[in-house]
Amino acid sequence: MRNSSTVTMFIILGLTNDPQLQILVFIYLFITYMLSIIGNMTIISLILVDSHLKTAMYFFLQNFSFLEIILTTACVPQYLHILSTGNRTITVKACFTQIFFVVLFAATEFFLLAVMSYDRYVAICKPLHYVTIMNSKVCKILILCCWVSGLLIILPFLNLSLNLEFCDSVIDHFYCDASPLLKNSCSDTWFIEQVVIVCAVVTFIMTLVCVVLSYVSIIRMVLKLPSAEQRKKAFSTCSSHMIVVSISYGSCIFIYIKRSAKDEVAINKAVSVLATSVAPLLNPFIYTLRNKQVKQSFNDIIKRFIFVSKKE
């Protein structure tokens, strides 16, 4: 990646300049990061070893957990390094690399949420054809489409911005993001900013429409079920995904709410912390605590481990 500007390094301002608050932020981010990795790795491992968790739903959940791990890893460790060393600088090349991976993983995650909604639609509205429709080949193709879609979202920005010249070097965020990066440019960035907005809105609207259409069909089908027990069981299979969707889309809505320039940076930072540290931490608990099969698999693994330990 080449850049013809005289600025070769950016300075990451982070979340706070207060030394005492920085210690608290470091402890908080370190704990949430480690718990996120452990929680999501646990889900991935359970699905790998348990033969009862080999359906399409758990295949998508496994990929979602993997995305959560790499998304939080693309943001949090670098800021932990900044807090621990005090070195806030990052090269222009490294900054663009971070933007590429963060946007790729985040966009792919939104497309995957849409695919997971479709999976729940097929499971509830077409249960007799579920195994046939959501077969292994289809699932792999859908995952590939999510990654390709995420790549197509980031490439226009990357292609247009690599030759920008920079007059300033301050990134008012805790990781490299497109908006604070463009504010440092000497060049006219209006067109690039519009491209960023269009790509973000297209991702948001396309995936949200898929989610809404899937759940409208699901609700219609569930309301036709004769007994309350059947309706409860049908909704319980979607509840975890609905909570995760609410967190993901709810945090994005905050970004696009009109507000003063003074509040914009602070709110964007708060939403980014929610998306990159809180959400990856909560998702394993949401799926584990609200899913009987995952809980049963976890309990079986623990019992097996205790039995082997006692035997030794």
In short:
Belongs to the G-protein coupled receptor 1 family. This protein has 312 residues and is mainly α. The protein has ten helices and three strands.
Shape: globular
* Number of DSSP helical runs: 10
- Counting helices, strands and paired strands, the structural category is mainly alpha
Biggest sheet strand order reads: 2-1-3
Cα-atom radius of gyration: 22 Å
Number of strands: 3
- Element string (H = helix, E = strand): EHHEHHHEHHHHH
Report the biggest beta sheet as strand number plus sense, adding barrel if it closes. 3 strands, mixed
Quaternary state reads single chain
Q: Average pLDDT, to the nearest integer?
A: 89
Family: Belongs to the G-protein coupled receptor 1 family.
GO cellular component, one term: plasma membrane
Membrane topology: Multi-pass membrane protein
Keywords: Cell membrane, Disulfide bond, G-protein coupled receptor, Membrane, Olfaction, Receptor, Sensory transduction, Transducer, Transmembrane, Transmembrane helix
Write the layout of secondary structure elements.
Elements: E1 9-12, H1 19-49, H2 56-85, E2 89-91, H3 92-125, H4 130-133, H5 136-161, E3 170-171, H6 178-182, H7 190-223, H8 228-256, H9 261-289, H10 292-311
Parallel strand pairs: 1-3
Antiparallel strand pairs: 1-2
Structure characterization notes:
With 312 residues, the protein is mainly alpha-helical. Helix content is 78%, strand content 3%. The chain contains 10 helices and 3 strands. A 3-stranded mixed beta sheet has the order 2-1-3. α3 (92-125) packs antiparallel against α5, α3 (92-125) runs antiparallel to α8 (228-256) and α8 packs antiparallel against α9 (261-289). The relative contact order is 0.14.
